[in-house]
Every structure is written in C-alpha cells, then in structure tokens.
Design goal:
2 copies of one chain form a homodimer.
Chain A: H1 2-16, H2 19-31, H3 36-43, H4 47-59, E1 63-68, E2 71-76, H5 82-92
Antiparallel strand pairs in A: 1-2
Helix pairs in contact in A: 1-4, 3-4
Chain A binds a DNA duplex through helix 3 and helix 4.
DNA sequence: TTATTATATCAAGATATATTGATATACAGA
DNA sequence: TCTGTATATCAATATATCTTGATATAATAA
C-alpha cells in the first residue's frame, strides 16, 4: 500500500524528468492523437527511442492509446488527476521550441 | 530563455524523482523548520547524504533556509508556485510511513 | 586559541537510466 | 500465403545519479 503509492509517485515524476519526454508530451498535447511514425518524421528520432519514451509516458498515466488497424494513436489521457494535469499545464506553458508536425499516418491529412 | 525554462522544470521534477527526497519533503512539511542534525537523528541517515539531498531540494525551489548561530533550519518555501505547491500537496497525501521526530537542535524542545 | 558541533563538499564505487542498432511481433493488403 | 509497414523489445555502451567515508569550512563555547 505504502510502497505502491510511493512507486506511483516516483513513476510519475520519473516520466517527467527527461527532456525528450517533456517535448513529446508538449507536442502530443498540442497536436492530439499521433502515432510513433508521426513523431518519427516530426522529431527525426529513431523509432526505438520514441517507442521507449512513449511507453514510459503511457505507463506513468499521461497517455492513452487508440488502436486503428496497424497504427497506435497516442493522446493525452482524460481525465487526468490534479497532479498530472498540473504537470501538463506547466509543460504547455514552457516556452520551448517544437518541430513542425509531419504526419505520415494515413488517418489524417490536415498537415 | 528556452533552455532555462526546460532546465528549471527538469530540476524540479528531478528533485521529486527520489524516494529519500520525497520522504524528507513530507517530513519537513509536517514538522516545520528542521536542521540537518534533526533529520540525522530522526532518519538515522549519514549527514553527508542528508546535506546533499537538502541542497537539491533547496536549489529546486522547495525549501528555504533560516540561519541561527551554527544551525541552518530548513522549511517549505512560501509562497510556492502552482506546480510545486501541487507537488507538495500530492506528497502530503501519500500514505507512507515517516520516522518519529527526534530534535537535537537547541531552539526547540517540544519533542 | 583550542575544542566541539553543524554543515558542506569531494572522490570512488554502486546503481539506474538513456541511447543506439538489431531483432521480434503484429497487422493490412496483394 | 508473402510483403511491407508500424510498433515493441533486447543487448551493449554511455551517461547520470546515489551512497558512503573522508575531508573542509563555519560558528559557538571554554
């Protein structure tokens, strides 16, 4: 019980303690449902690297997955508890530059 | 500008991503102004270890110091910005066990 | 001054996390 | 079935952090 609560808190703060994940979270918060390949083309990062970080953001409660065919679309989970919501709002307010979005997935062409 | 905001955010989440620091923050939040020696006697940890973690909590904006003679008393900083305040409240609500307080410093004998 | 106490810092080893490249799995369409 | 695409996972290396013990600095009291 005690250990679980602490572990959950540390999992949450650990997910937030990485520049790559903060940028991904901000990008997904801004652009909505995106798949790994969209992030790959937008950020120019290796797929394995993105997949790993997205998994951490998912398992720490920040993202939900929506499967459509071969694609998995990741979005900010709703609703978020107060702490995670405050964290997302803090990240939303961060004055950092993000790449242009380049969608490769087929479900959305509003590039 | 961009880098500073990101670094400040990561410094904050990094401070929260450690079980020892979470326990110290909760303890100080509960008991108020404490010095390193009070934490040493209460937690039974080495002074160098405590000093290091307190420094990280101080430099990440969670604690203030109040010097009195040879003692340095650490308290939760007020006011805290929204994100740090939410983090402290989250930690306050964590159902984890803390040690009994054993004050060694002279300014307070209400053990 | 000297001794004592409180706190800070350093160096080394242990532990944890990030990155990369390769491989594995899952699914859609021909 | 086979092919191509999307995603997940693994192993090895690099990097960062934590802990400990020792040392250094600062302030008080004798």
């Amino acid at each position: 019980m005690n250990k679980e609560a602490m572990d959950d808190f540390l999992k949450t703060t650990g997910a937030l303690y990485d520049e790559t994940r903060v940028r991904l979270l901000k990008f997904i918060d801004r652009h909505g449902a995106l798949c790994i390949c969209d992030l790959e083309s937008s950020f120019g990062m290796l797929q394995s690297r993105l997949s790993r970080h997205i998994k951490i953001l998912k398992e720490s409660g920040f993202l939900t997955v929506q499967k459509e065919g071969r694609w998995s679309y990741y979005s900010i989970r709703t609703p978020l508890d107060r702490f995670r919501l405050q964290a997302v709002e803090e990240i939303r307010a961060l004055p950092i530059e993000l790449p242009e979005i380049k969608r490769l997935s087929r479900s959305c062409y509003i590039d």
